[in-house]
Each structure stands twice: as structure tokens, then as C-alpha cells.
Design a protein that fits this description.
Layout: H1 2-18, E1 23-27, E2 33-39, E3 50-57, H2 59-71, E4 76-81, E5 84-90, E6 99-105, H3 106-117
Parallel strand pairs: 1-4
Antiparallel strand pairs: 2-3, 3-6, 4-5
Length: 118
Amino acid sequence: MNLRWAFFALVWMTPLAWAQAPAKLFYSSQTDFTEITVSLKKTSALQPESIRVDVTLTPEARARSRALSLLAMHKRITLYLNGRQLSTATVQSILDGPGLTFSIPRDQLLEMMPSLLE
């Protein structure tokens, strides 16, 4: 009887372990970026409904990005900017560059613009 319960627990718990929540990487435009460039329109944009944002990270933000991406290698990570969720992706390499590029949906960028200007 104990073997049956152990097998049941193993089968039931295994999908829960695989369904791990994504790591969370938080950025504040006020403290984590030294430069922000917003591309409002680009003919070659793959997603015209989104705006491309290029940022330069502070040394602290760069170290945090590197450490978290190293821990989350081949796992999902969710990017947050000024408290708002932007996207979730699978980490394929360490985020180690001084720069970072991401996309923000147009309507969300309009709402976020005042916080980006502070």
C-alpha cells in the first residue's frame, strides 16, 4: 500500500515541479537606466503594434540582470518595467551587455510615458 501512495505522489507532484513560475526581473527607469531610446516607427519592425525601446543599464542593473539570467538559464523569466509586466521569455544566454532592447505595446507605452520621463 505504501508503494502505491509513493507512486501516486510522484506522478501527481512531477507536473507541479515542471510548471515552475517564471523568475522576475524588475527594472526602474529612474534608477536602472542611464539612457533610454524609443523608436516610435520603423519600416522593418517585425511587430508594428509594439514600440522598440533600447536602454543602457547602470552597473548595478547589469550585475542583477547577469546574476538572475544565470540562475534562470533555459527557464522562463518575466521582465517588469516600473512595476508593469512587459514580457516573458525563456533565457537562452546570460544578459551581460550594457544595453538591453525590448518591445512595449503602443497603448502600454502611452500609459507608461510619464514614468519613463521622470
